[in-house]
Amino acid sequence: MQKILKSSIITIAGLSMATSCMFGANDLQSIMKERNLSEKDVLSAAKTYQPSGRKDEYIVFSSGGQSGQVLVYGVPSMRIYKYIGVFTPEPWQGYGYDEESKKVLAGGMMRGKQITWGDTHHPALTEKNGEYVGDYLFINDKANPRIAVINLHDFETTQIVVNPVIKSEHGGSFVTPNTEYVIEASQYAAPFDNEYHPIEEYESVYRGAVTFWKFDYPKGKIDEKASFTLELPPYMQDLSDAGKGESMGWGFTNSFNSEMYTGGIEKGLPPFEAGMSRNDTDYLHVYNWQILEKLVQDEKNYKVINNHRVVPIEVAVKNNALFLIPEPKSPHGVDVSPDGRYIIIGGKLDTHASVYDFRKIKELIDKKEYAGTDPFGIPILDMKKSLHGQVELGLGPLHNSYDEKDGIVYTSLYVDSQIVKWDYKNLKALDRVNVHYNIGHLDTMEGKSSKPKGKYAIALDKLSIDRFNPVGPLHPQNHQLIDITGAKMELIYDMPIPLGEPHDVVSIAASKLKPAMTYKMGTNTRTGEQHEAMTLAGQERVERNGKDVKVYATMVRSHINPEHIEVNKGDNVTIYLTNLERAQDETHGFAVDMYNVHASVEPGKTASVSFVADQEGVFPYYCTEFCSALHLEMMGYLYVKDPNKKYESVKASKLKTLSPEALKAEYDKVIATNKATDDVIQSVVKYLQDKKYERFPEVKQLVEDALDQYSKIKDVKAKADESYKKGDVNNAILWEYQVWQYMVKTADVGLRAKNNLTKALATPMSPAAARGEEAYLKGGCNGCHVIGQVSSGPDLTGVLLRHENGEKWVFDFIKDPAKFYEDEYIKSMINFFNLRMPNQHMADPEIKDIIEYLKWIDENAAIN
Ligand code: K7E
Ligand code: CUA
Prior knowledge:
Elements: H1 2-13, H2 17-23, H3 28-35, H4 39-48, E1 58-63, E2 69-75, E3 80-85, H5 99-106, E4 120-128, E5 131-141, E6 146-151, E7 156-162, E8 174-175, E9 181-185, E10 190-191, H6 202-205, E11 206-216, E12 221-232, E13 237-242, E14 250-255, H7 272-275, E15 281-288, H8 289-295, E16 303-305, E17 308-311, H9 313-318, E18 322-328, E19 334-336, E20 342-346, E21 352-357, H10 358-366, E22 372-373, E23 379-380, H11 383-386, E24 387-392, E25 397-402, E26 408-413, E27 418-423, E28 428-434, E29 439-445, E30 454-461, E31 477-483, E32 490-497, E33 505-509, E34 523-524, E35 529-530, E36 541-545, E37 548-556, E38 559-561, E39 564-568, E40 572-579, E41 588-592, E42 597-601, E43 606-612, E44 617-622, E45 635-641, H12 660-690, H13 697-711, H14 713-725, H15 729-761, H16 767-778, H17 799-802, H18 806-815, H19 824-833, H20 844-861
Helix pairs in contact: 12-15, 13-15, 14-15, 16-20, 18-20
Sulfanyl-(tricuprio-$l^{4}-sulfanyl)copper is lined by residues 121-122, 170, 239, 332, 398-399, 440-441, 503-504.
C-alpha cells in the first residue's frame, strides 16, 4: 500500500498546475496541498478509510460510562455502529418505552427503586478456552452494583442482575476462561446488610467482596441462585482478572486502602487521598474459585445474607482459597498474560509495572510458605519471592493489553500520556507513543484473551483538550487508533466519543460475530421466546375486559392494522405490535403521540406498549422509521372518549363529490398506471429469472420479499373488481391505489435485487484490467468520467466501439489528446463539455491496461 501511494504521489507531482486546475482539486497532490496533509497523514487515512460497503475487520464494544450504555464501533474505520441501551432507557430501540424492555430494566431495580442510569466500566465477552466467543457481552455498573447481559445475536440487553451484598463495585465484569462465572468485585467497602452502621464499625462490619455470577450458557442468563460471594477485608478492592492456562481456577483482584483509613476531612482530619496512600504497598488478592464453588455446596461453609450465599474470610483461608501479596501502593490494572503465567500490575503512583509469576506464587502456596498474615488472618505471600521482576515504564502506569507476539505487552501511562510497548519476560521497554491525553485503558485486538491478535491498539484518552472542534466546556473523550504492526507504533486516527467516559473496551474479530438479520415471526426479543401476543395477518383485533383493552396489531409496509382504536378515558391500554416483514432492515417504529410510548419493531419482532388513556381526545399514532415511500401514510388514530360525557355530533359536512364521468376517468387512469407498473415488474422478473437469481442467496432473499409483496395484490384486486361490479367506483379506485402501493413496494425491492444480481454477475477483472482501473483512478480520470453516466466528461461505456479501429484510436487519444483538438468530433465534445481532455502523461503499458479496463466495462454493460 505504502508503495502504491508513494508512486502515485510522485506521478501526480509530475502533472502541471494547469492540469490540476482543470481537474479542480481531484488529484491527490492538490488535495494534500489544499488540506495541508503530509504523506504520513495520507498513509494513516489509507490505513483507516473504508470505501462504501467495505466492512471492518474488528468490532469493538466500548462501555458508555455515565450514559449507562454500550457503544459498538469498527476497527480500523472507527465508525460508530450502535449504542446499546443497557442500564439507561434508549428511545430508538424502544428500550425502556416498550413493555418487554421495561421488564429487563426492572431487573435492575434496587430495593424497590427504579435506577435509570449506570456507570458502565468493563465490558467482557463470553470465552471458550480463554478465547473470545461472540455470543454474549457482559457489562458492569460501578455506581449501582449490577451486571447486564447483552445477547450478541441481536445486540439487545436481556438481563440485569443486582448484587445483593455490595454497595459499590468496580472489578467487574471479568469472565473465567470457559464463561463459568462472571466476576464482579466491590470497590468502596460497605456493610453487607442494608442497615445503618457508623464509620467506627469500619473494620468490624464494612467489607469488600468478590461475587461469582454463574452463567447458564445454554439459557444465556446469569443464574442468580447458583451465584455466590467471597467476603474480603475492607481494603477497597479494585480491578480484577481471571486466571487462565497455568493459573486456571484462580482470580486476582487489586486493592488500594490496606490502611483501612476512614477519612473525615469535614472534621479536620486528613482526607481519604492522604490516608489511603500512606503504606508503600497494598494487597493483590489471590483466590481460587474452583475451591470456593465446591465449598458453597455445603451450607456449613457459607452465610446467607440477603438471600445470597457468602463465604466468610475464615472459611476461604482454612480451605486454601484466599491469599494476599503486597503490591506497589494504589495500583490500578491487573492483567493476566495470554498463557496465564504472568500477572502484570500497573503501579499508578509508581513508575514501575510489576510482573508477578504465577508459578512462584503457586509454589509458595503449595509449600505454605507465608511471610505473615493480615489482621483478618489471611496468609500473605512474600512480594519479592512472587515477582518475576519490575520494569520502569514512566509515570502513572494503569492498564495492560497483550500482543500477538509472545512476551510483548502494551501499557498505558496516565500521567505521561503515553503507551509503552515492552517485553515482560526480559523486562525491558521497547517503544513508546504519545497519546492525547491522559490515557486510561488501552486495548489491542482481542488483547486480553488467550490468543491476542495484535495489529491495532486503541488508546482510551480521558482528556481531549485541543484535539477537536470545541463543543462547550464538556469535552468529548478521545479514542485513538494506533498501528502496532511495525517496530514503531504509529498513531493513525482520533475519534471523539460523544457519550460518557467509556473506561474500557473489548474487541473481537468481526468474523466471530454472527448476528441475526431478522427474527423468527413473533419473537419477544428480550426473552428469545415466542411472544404470547404474536399476531399474524388476519388476526388483528381489539379485546376488552372491563377497563383493560388489548389491541393486537400488525405492521407491514406501509400500514398499521388497525387504523382506528377507540377507548374510554381511564382504560388500561396495551397495544401488541407484530412486524410481519421478512426482509432485512424493514423495521417499523411505533409511537402514540403524547403518551410517552415508543417501540422499535424489527422484522419478525412482537413488542408491546402500555399506557393508561388518562387524557381525552384524538391522538395520532404512526410508524417512526422511514420504511417506504408511503411511510408517512403508516398511521392511525387513537380516540379516547370520556364515558361520562355526552358528545353532540357535529353535522358531517357535505363537500362536492366527483361526477360519475370524472370517477370513471380516474378509474381508467389508475388501471392504466397499474398496467404500466406491472409491465416494469414483469420485465424485472424476466431479467431475474433469465439470469437465474436463485443462485445468489442474498438476491434470492430480496426476490422472495418482492414476490411476497406482489402476492398481496390478488386479494386487493378482487376487492377492487367487486366494488366496481357493485357500482362503487370510488372504493374501486381506492383499492386500485392499494394495488399500486403493493406494486411500488414490489418494484422497489425487485430493482434492488436486480442491482445486486448485476453486481454478482459481473465477470471478474483480468489482472491487466485491474491494473487499468488503478491507473484510471490514479490518473484522476474519474474526475471527469463517470462510468455509465455523462458527467463533466462523456460516459466511457462503449467508447471502444464509437470509433473505427477503436482500441488504437483510444490509445492515441490518451497518449496525446492535443493532436485531436481540431478533429470535428472532438471539437464538438470540447464545446459540449467546455473542457478538453488533458494529457495525463500515461506510460504505454498503463494505457494498454486502461483499454483492458474499458473492455471489461463494455462486457459488463451488457448485463444491464
Ligand atoms: Cu481504569 Cu474503571 Cu477500568 Cu477507568 S477503570 S481508567
Ligand atoms: Cu413503517 Cu414507516
